[in-house]
Amino acid sequence: MNPPDRFATDLPPLDPAIAAAVRQRWDAKTKPLGSLGQLEALALQVAQIQGREAPAIGSTHVFVFAADHGAARAGVSAYPQDVTWQMVMNFLAGGAAISVLARELGCSLSVVDAGVNHDFEPAPGLVDAKIAHGTASYLEAAAMSAGQCRAALAAGRALALESPADCLLLGEMGIGNTASASLLMHHLTGVALAECVGPGTGLDAAGVARKLELLERASRRHGLGRGDADALAVLATFGGFEIAMLAGCLIGAAQARKVVLVDGFIVGAAALVACRLAPGLERHLVFAHRSAEPAHRRLLAELGARPLLQLDMRLGEGSGAAVALPLLRLSLSLLANMATFESAQVSRAS
Amino acid sequence: MNPPDRFATDLPPLDPAIAAAVRQRWDAKTKPLGSLGQLEALALQVAQIQGREAPAIGSTHVFVFAADHGAARAGVSAYPQDVTWQMVMNFLAGGAAISVLARELGCSLSVVDAGVNHDFEPAPGLVDAKIAHGTASYLEAAAMSAGQCRAALAAGRALALESPADCLLLGEMGIGNTASASLLMHHLTGVALAECVGPGTGLDAAGVARKLELLERASRRHGLGRGDADALAVLATFGGFEIAMLAGCLIGAAQARKVVLVDGFIVGAAALVACRLAPGLERHLVFAHRSAEPAHRRLLAELGARPLLQLDMRLGEGSGAAVALPLLRLSLSLLANMATFESAQVSRAS
To answer: What is the ipTM metric for this complex?
Structure first.
């Protein structure tokens, strides 16, 4: 497992003294011990990520990484490939789910063209980071070259480091990218491919069976290992440009001590790649939700992650990350603003 | 099962045509069918509750119903009874979890003195609806008289009908009220008492065993039925004034077509009582979260309810309802503001 050339993967330490201090702050608040459940664990994690006992979030930014997949034309998705660029236009016009959510939550939003098969005019909110007009099909060749893979990782990391926001919500758009995520999961965890493949945006049972057959062929074709496969090789072979850029962005965000909300199955697969490149990264990531895509449950278990929400969402775009943002904000506000037993003169448990 | 004297329990109809219209609106939005999961079901339910195809929420109000329990002095809680009035002061002073959450979410808040064992000075935000200085102990007698029970139900219903808010978050405070909720659940569902009893605010295993023994004695003492017991008799025998007022408030809110977010185990037990008094009520209620109190899972199943959140919270006060409010707001905003495939010129699934 080699880090990419000139791509630092070291992570800042998570200080146990900060965790202990936050635990003590929570336990002094006017409530039964531990009774805010996951909200207590969340504020504690954010404190460790930020390296301070009083965690807080200023501005929050949404990055939606978009790219096309060569394999999409082989029938691994319920939607035609053109939907990728059409949805990019919808994000920018403000009509997509993530656009509505970002507005409602007061977040800024950029759409990153990581490799969409379309030529966009420059537009406010659109970041041109195009590696190519979509990947090659892994049914025929590696999806991308090693150089393209490194470039995508580095571009994602740079976006995280350069963003002025201290909290990032990461999402994606790319017809065919559930299939790509399934292949990444299979090769990096060793979980049987049939358990990694699902309906994505809405294939029926016959569609899922056909997709599984195609992906089994692709998996055999490249002869990569299972479970302990080289993460960069797997990413270059099966990845999308948006997934590689997401992986870089996740690493960069952790390095910059930013809080990141990880969306669903596809961003989860990018997180898996990133955790293989930067071991321990999972403790720097906040897993927003468990999607309805069946393999996501197992993927989260492989990462030792407990998501905040289970709402049967399966939309992508960062929508699950956005819906979890209020929980993050409320947990930090509770830690900052609740009274203590002493200050409120409330009796403790006998 | 007789409704209380002069206490109307009829509910407005839920129009299936409205559900169909909202389903159609969701399916035209730029997203895979059903991919917003529970958020789609939530907006649809709110539309039916409100009786309109375009559901919306204006102002939201939090009611925290507080009361004391005669049985609390027998050792059914980890906290002394004085904590009830001390926490009322903390709610009013702004230091409790629900105070912080209400501020953060832009909700107004009232604390309703349904029967706290303390004499409060009048204060902004405090509603004096005191039935008595706490209930009698069900270990010795019925907790309240039939007249007190009817008065509490009517007072809660009146508060819902008179509130100018169109969305209500309901919570409670009352040392010993987890025990009361367990007894209500046992007698109204038939679930074994051992499965209805848990640690509440934080009893250890020995404390839970002692609590169960006390509650078994109380249950035997009154000789009420199991499962099909008369809801008013059960409520009067084991209830708290805050639980009775909550039950009335839930019924009143549904009658006024207000959206109600139901908090955890204790408000859940009040909802169970209210559903027995007003059959079908459960479809008018939004269940906010599943608490860490073990019996809450079974209670929700008895009501056929799927909660929005499972965050291991067990604080009460309405804190779980408050944390779920952003999900409700976001679901309504998505339905109102997302583009359609037509308006955004996005291709549909093939």
So the answer is: 0.96
